[in-house]
Amino acid sequence: MTAESSLPAILGGEAIRPQGPPDWPMADESILEAVHSAYRDGSWGRYHGGHVARLEQRLAVLHQVEHVLTCGSGTFAIELALRALKIGPGDEVVMAAYDYGGNFLSIHAVGARPVLVDVDAENWNLAPENLAAAFGPATRAVLVSHLHGGLVPMREVLALARQYGIAVIEDAAQAPGARVQGRVAGTWGDVGILSFGGSKLLTAGRGGALLTRRADVAQRARLALQRGNLLCPLSELQAAVLLPQLDRLAQRNTHRLRAVRFLEQALHGIPGLRPFRNRPREDSQPAYYKLGFQFEPGAFGLPRARFVAALRAEGVAIDEGFPALHLGRSPSRWRSLGPLPQAERAHEGALVLHHPILLGTDDELKQVVQAVAKIHRHAKLLR
Ligand SMILES: *Cc1c(COP(=O)(O)O)cnc(C)c1O
What we know:
- The chain is 38% helix and 16% strand.
- Strand 4, helix 6 and strand 5 form a beta-alpha-beta unit.
- It is globular, with a radius of gyration of 21 Å.
- Helix 1 runs antiparallel to helix 8, helix 3 packs parallel to helix 4 and helix 3 packs across helix 7.
- It starts with 28 loop residues before the first helix and ends with a helix.
- The chain folds into 2 domains: 217 residues, 3-Layer(aba) Sandwich (Aspartate Aminotransferase, domain 2); 135 residues, Alpha-Beta Complex (Aspartate Aminotransferase, domain 1).
- The chain is of the alpha/beta class.
- The structure holds pyridoxal-5'-phosphate (PLP).
- Pyridoxal-5'-phosphate (PLP) binds next to helix 3 and helix 4.
- Pyridoxal-5'-phosphate binds next to helix 3 and helix 4.
């Protein structure tokens, strides 16, 4: 009996991937070489070993922006961006009601209030057509994240924000190197941010960067980052291991994109499980930190939590998405113009497949498909 025809692993059958999901970070000789080299020349232990400066330079070229400041995390980069835009008490920042929770908290950290807008029905990323109604006299910025392989139409966001005189912060933590309507993700707005957290596509365990073309914003961010010394820096060793990853980013993004195309095709016939769909857009290429799915329990035949547990038992790294920001939080901490039905659908139905498998072999991608099909076939038994 093959693993495919056996019982689901969660019911005691043989797992499709008994070895579990692939490791992250993955083995990479170029990183070992970077660590060795930083050891040999002593740069690993210096305040200024050259790697941070080189990384900032490389990121500036890749993004075609004048100013790059690295720092201790993507979350801190968002806070720096808000401070550099002089956003504080009494101000409002518009963001999607389905987004990374840290972004909501960063707005509070500077004393401002989040205004939540509903998301796109097809990919649960910010929908630009919902912005204008949310802009009020206190609105100072809109914070936009590209999430789970989704892309937000930044051209539309920018046009609207300019019309209202509102700043744009573009969070590309999940989409380094993605193309959005002809530009690299993170370079559309007044400020962009990247994350180098331990699960991210560019990883150093921790770390982040702020990108901007505006000299005044860069200068204020630099001041906010300095308090006698750098408050929350990226280390030389972190920068040293990020540099070789930058060399491979474009090639890996293309590899992951091909894997996603394959999964989209191969999972097409499974009811109740649909990959995020971006609006067709010229000169755009998503990046996949996670591959987002819209899950419908009724159509698939299982509750979402049960599907996740069963798929994980087969050795596939999948998770529920973010909670919607307005659910379970006091309404005194945010404002919205009305109901947020798509964000609530996302809260109930978002699934995210972790990226390491997307760099795997064709056989590994087929294992994902087999595991999903197996669980679907046994849905009745699993209920
Ligand atoms: C991970 C992430 C961040 C923050 O990055 P950290 O470096 O972990 O602080 C910000 N925004 C989004 C969308 C993220 O996924």
